[in-house]
Amino acid sequence: MKKKIDRKIERNRKIEKFLAEKQPETPCLVVDLEVVAEAYQLLRTYMPIAKVFYAVKANPAGEIVELLRGLGSAFDVASRGEIDLCLGCGVTADRISFGNTIKKERDIVYAHEKGVRLFAFDSEAELEKLARSAPGARVFCRILVDGEGAEWPLSRKFGCAPEMAVELLRRAKAAGLDPYGVSFHVGSQQTNLDQWDSAVGRAAAMFSLLAETDINLRMVNIGGGFPAHYRGDVLGVERYAQAVMAAITRHFGNDLPEIIVEPGRSVVGDAGVIQSEVVLISQKAFGEEKRWVYLDVGKFNGLAETMDESIKYRIRTPVDGGPSGTVVLAGPTCDSADILYEKTAYRLPMALKVGDKVQILSTGAYTSSYASVGFNGFSPIKTYCI
Ligand SMILES: *Cc1c(COP(=O)(O)O)cnc(C)c1O
């Protein structure tokens, strides 16, 4: 059963009021912090035994980090910059996990100096760096999963075969590190709940294997992958949480490990709305039906996840409801890669005109943090947290 979209996600009056009253320069992203808090609490409610590490890369706005810190969240970071961001927002180092498997050794040194004691790795060379520069730290090994069913897959680049992970965790112990657990990421906006079951199964098998040689792993990090509401139905986060908890119980029985979850998209995605202006509407030949609609936001200033038309945002216009026609949607830059949707059937109202403001919904995740520094003179998108 698909869950009906929450009313506040379908239509966020607080954001609409802000946009109407403040008339901010477009494009801009407005994030409703109440929706962020609710998404965090929802996860806590349905996964009470899990410790939440918010994946900072999804949206690194200081207001969001501070809000989540206040609610008790921990943080998954990928770089020195994200460590500084968290520390600057008052997050203590014991609530930071350095989850990137690709780190410069001097950044490991930096993190360790700042008190970070939890690190990811997925290779022998990274393990050697950690043994040298973060002695005694808790480390977890990321395993490969296929990522099938994810709208934004993360497979291949991260993780190693479970057999290799077992051996590396043994070496971690021999090298003076604390072999703490196993992590995986089934891919972002994952639509297939079974993915967690097979990944948790692999993790459980590793626990058993390592226990034979007196290495007792304690933690499973189930990564992210929970959804936001784009076009098309998705199950509610509660259904995801239930499926994951069922998988953990099935594979670990009564001897439950510590669970870490690293949500990004599901915490901030639905909380954000991008307001954009229609810059141009055109046809490529007289009499052609298909319109090209150019917005002031595109791939380089906020909508990078439209790459390969992967993430399909819901769009609202001020003239919704009347007759509509097929469109190609594109951004404003002089790069032909800056087409948002061409293959995906998007229709917009015939009454839409140049200068109209359109709203791109559920854009709180991977938008502001994915914008270029100013390609073609178009500034990165500005964020307002309200
Ligand atoms: C990006 C990332 C996440 C967040 O994933 P979502 O699908 O946005 O929830 C979690 N963990 C790691 C290691 C990541 O790189």
Write the SSE topology.
Blueprint: H1 7-10, H2 13-22, E1 28-31, H3 33-46, E2 50-55, H4 62-71, E3 74-77, H5 80-88, E4 96-98, H6 105-114, E5 118-121, H7 124-133, E6 138-142, E7 150-152, H8 162-174, E8 178-183, E9 188-190, H9 194-211, E10 219-221, H10 237-252, E11 258-261, H11 265-268, E12 272-282, E13 291-295, E14 315-316, E15 324-330, E16 339-349, E17 357-361, E18 382-385
Parallel strand pairs: 1-18, 2-3, 2-11, 3-4, 5-6, 6-8, 8-10, 10-11, 13-15
Antiparallel strand pairs: 1-12, 7-9, 12-13, 12-17, 14-17, 15-16
Helix pairs in contact: 3-4, 6-7, 8-9, 9-10
Task: Kindly describe this structure.
The chain is an alpha/beta fold and 386 residues long. The chain has two domains: 34-263, TIM Barrel; 270-385, Lyase, Ornithine Decarboxylase, Chain A, domain 1. 31% of the residues lie in helices and 23% in strands. The protein has helices spanning 7-10, 13-22, 33-46, 62-71, 80-88, 105-114, 124-133, 162-174, 194-211, 237-252, 265-268, and strands at residues 28-31, 50-55, 74-77, 96-98, 118-121, 138-142, 150-152, 178-183, 188-190, 219-221, 258-261, 272-282, 291-295, 315-316, 324-330, 339-349, 357-361, 382-385. Strands 1, 12, 13, 14, 15, 16, 17 and 18 form an eight-stranded mixed β-sheet that branches. Strand 2 (50-55), helix 4 (62-71) and strand 3 form a beta-alpha-beta unit. Helix 3 (33-46) runs parallel beside helix 4. The mean pLDDT is 95. Bound molecules: pyridoxal-5'-phosphate. Residues 55, 57-58, 76, 99, 185, 188, 223-226, 262-266 line the site of pyridoxal-5'-phosphate.
